[in-house]
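User: I've been trying to design a sequence by hand for this structure and keep getting stuck. Would you show me what you'd pick, starting by listing the structure so we're on the same page?

Assistant: Good idea, let's start from the same input. This is the structure you sent:
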């Protein structure tokens, strides 16, 4: 009895990955083994960098809050400590946005904990 191979399914699997590597250079786009490796490595980078993105945004927010706080004679750590002690629950994203775009509102927050 001849060997039965589901070529439709295996071809569909390959086409799916080759479609996702479209736009890559030379063999990375159309040579199956190279394209598969490229695709898998890209997925690893995407997974890692979704986490790194959160890390780098938090660092950016902290820098912006620190710059805003220093205009009022406080450091970042002093401001965050006083906010925690005063039970003011504003997250860093919102604080950074206030420091950048709403200086009056940020000043009111700083003065409320000074």
């Amino acid at each position: 009895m001849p060997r039965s191979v589901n070529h439709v399914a295996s071809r569909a699997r390959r086409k799916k990955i080759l479609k996702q590597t479209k736009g890559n250079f030379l063999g990375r786009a159309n040579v199956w083994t190279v394209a598969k490796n490229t695709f898998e490595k890209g997925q690893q980078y995407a997974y890692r960098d979704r986490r790194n993105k959160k890390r780098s945004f938090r660092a950016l927010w902290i820098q912006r809050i620190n710059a805003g706080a220093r205009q009022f004679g406080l450091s970042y750590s002093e401001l965050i400590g006083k906010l925690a002690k005063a039970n003011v629950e504003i997250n860093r994203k919102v604080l950074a946005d206030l420091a950048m775009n709403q200086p009056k509102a940020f000043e009111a927050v700083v003065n409320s904990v000074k």
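That's my pick for every position. To get oriented when you compare it with your attempt: The chain has one domain: 7-113. The chain has a mean pLDDT of 96.
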